[in-house]
Amino acid sequence: MPEPTAEILQQATVNWDAEGQPYAADFDDRYFSRTSGLSETRHVFLHHNGLPERWTTPECPLFTIGETGFGTGLNFLTVASLWLDQISSGTLHFISAEKYPLSRSDLQQALSLWPTLSGLANTLIEQYPPPIPGIHRLYLANNRIVLTLLYGDANTMFASLPGSDHPLFSSRNNPVVDAWFLDGFAPAKNPQMWTDDLFQTLARLSAPGTTFSTFTAVGSVRRGLQAAGFEVQKVSGFGQKLHMLCGYMAEPITPETSETDWRPASHNAEFQPPWYLPPRLSPPLSALVIGGGIAGCATARSLAERGISVTLIEQHPQLASEGSGNPQAILYPKLSSQRSPLSRFGLMALLHASRYHQRFLGEEATGSPCGVLILPKHQHELPLFEELARQYPAELVALVTGSQLNEIAGIPLGIGAGLFFPQLGWIKPVAVCQALTDHPLIRSQTATIATLHHAQHQWQAYDQHGTLSAAASVAVIASGTGSAAFTQTAHLPLKPIRGQISCLPATADSTQLKTVICGEGYLAPASDGIHTLGATYNIGEICTTLREEDHRDNLAQLQKTAPEVAALFDPADANHLNGRAAFRCTTPDYLPIAGPAPIAEQYRLDYALLRKNARAHIPVAGACWPGLYLNCGHGSRGMSYAPLCAELLASQICGEVSPLEQELRQAIHPGRFIIRDMKRGKQ
């Protein structure tokens, strides 16, 4: 088998026995008992974790299960089905690591063995992510079931979660797991997973009373769990297995670590002072969100779905009136052959967004998952296209040529090759924002917020007249370039970039376009008789008045990208086209800003040594404004970036497992610019 690229995990090699049951060829082991996989799950993992009894006494609004091997998903579906049958409200959060994920077809075949689980199984299969390393969050059963898949080595992935990523400050993070399913192939056949490091990491993510169970009873596992602080008991196993282990966390035992000798786990990792750690909070009862674009609306929805009452404040009478107000927005991919925080975050955000927006597609269409076709700007890009098609999974992107290209587009393109993203498409931002805020715990109001004050454990938002508009224990600023207008956020390096779109009346031929075309610009399929074409990139301009020259620029971009498509429209239309101009909110590194708002002056005091030594060891956690967060800086990719950032904030605010690993949380943290400037001697 060829070595996987950096962005593709090696998928499981599955064989099937005479009874149609899956067998892991790479580990010479079975995924579940030949006798009864369902009975095995119920005996080993449900019964010995005290489920479902622990869900009902006391009241259980959120229960979190961690698992060390997702496999076929049988454990997950079994416990999810039981939760829906037994619990009328609340959320089950299931977190599972998998280094060798099954292919979608193998997963479907394996789960067909369990027809009683078919409803949930079909939803899982529909959302099942491609084998791209990282954290993937899925929603089932009207969000009552949340599945967080950690694609990668269990040791590494669990260690990247809050509560385990910095031993000196693990007490700042809430324990996040209530019960552990220690599954995976037998320790003798998969020793790389069953390590003391893993057991210590699981302990840091546990609280006193957190339970565990596992099918194995080998001595090394028992001793490793005991050394991490778990009380361990040997009990009767399932089927032919005489014994198994179960128990609970008594008190986490972590190795003695001093402030002077701690270093990152990876010897090759650049040392970072823990400026990026999120503050520890109790889940709030109320929140205010400033900004009614996609960032604010997605944030409000993520908080409301966790039972938090949200006041959404927008300065205009209508939601999505500025950067999120275009008639069509593209879920635009920007892949790279180089692995970087920007490319990795963009990819994970795009995958999340493609699943996220499907949740809000109702009877009134808010868009179309019609696919996105990237055309080369010049012939020199074709080798890069070929490399990207090899580097990423085919279900995410494929290189298409000739007649296949024209068939996908629905019209002749006159182009030799392109990259096709079948899971992407276009959406109506205004309709999406309206759908997101259609929730009983979200209240929208119109006001222009000028100042924020923190008093009596609440954030108070005052308008330009000095009138109190709203107050809540948590505040999120999500108002684009206006996010830097407050005293607490004035240090943010946000820059507005003007963009103008053109609205092209559809022709008889152009209505045949079936997919989004991207190159120098983009052209969306017709919606309500209009194609959206764009967009210009005007740096340093602050006027929103429509300009004919910009319409001509958009048409010229289309001519460069796809001349045969451009020929379907009359160039003279530039003199009387409709359109829209708005501003992208951009950052110097083109990554968004999402996380707790730093106290800039305190950062500069605490990390002053970085001015002299960029690698200085400073064991001080970053000082943040209590309960103040940011979600902004999405540039031209708000529809792709904002949903994942919103989920990150809600997870941090509520003390839940993050949808992003440490490297990417750090890459988008609001404090990163202060740290970088100090290292470069700019502050």
Key structural traits:
nine-stranded mixed β-sheet, D-Amino Acid Oxidase, Chain A, domain 2, Rossmann fold, disordered N terminus, 683 residues, 25% strand, eight-stranded mixed β-sheet, 3 domains
Tell me how many strands there are.
32
Unreliable stretches: 1-5, 257-270
Largest sheet: 9 strands, mixed
Per the CATH scheme, the topology name of the largest domain is: Rossmann fold
Task: Give the CATH level 1 class of the largest domain.
Answer: Alpha Beta
Instruction: Compute the separation of the termini in Å.
Output: 51 Å
> CATH superfamily membership of the largest domain, which one?
Vaccinia Virus protein VP39
Specify Rg, calculated over alpha carbons.
26 Å
Shape: globular
In terms of DSSP E residues, the strand content is 15-25%
User: Average pLDDT across residues?
Assistant: 90
Q: What is the CATH-assigned architecture of the largest domain?
A: 3-Layer(aba) Sandwich
How much helix, percentage-wise, in residues?
25-40%
Number of helices: 19
User: Helix- and strand-based class?
Assistant: alpha/beta
Count the domains: 3
Describe the protein.
The chain is of the alpha/beta class. The chain has 3 domains: 236 residues, Vaccinia Virus protein VP39 (Rossmann fold, 3-Layer(aba) Sandwich), CATH 3.40.50; 192 residues, FAD/NAD(P)-binding domain (3-Layer(bba) Sandwich); 141 residues, 2-Layer Sandwich (D-Amino Acid Oxidase, Chain A, domain 2). Helix content is 26%, strand content 25%. It contains 19 helices and 32 strands. The strands form 6 sheets. Strands 16, 17, 18, 25, 26, 27, 28, 29 and 30 form a 9-stranded mixed β-sheet that branches. It has an 8-stranded mixed β-sheet with strand order 6-7-5-4-8-9-11-10, sandwiched between helices. Strand 2 and strand 3 form a beta hairpin. Helix 9 runs parallel beside helix 13 and helix 10 crosses helix 17.
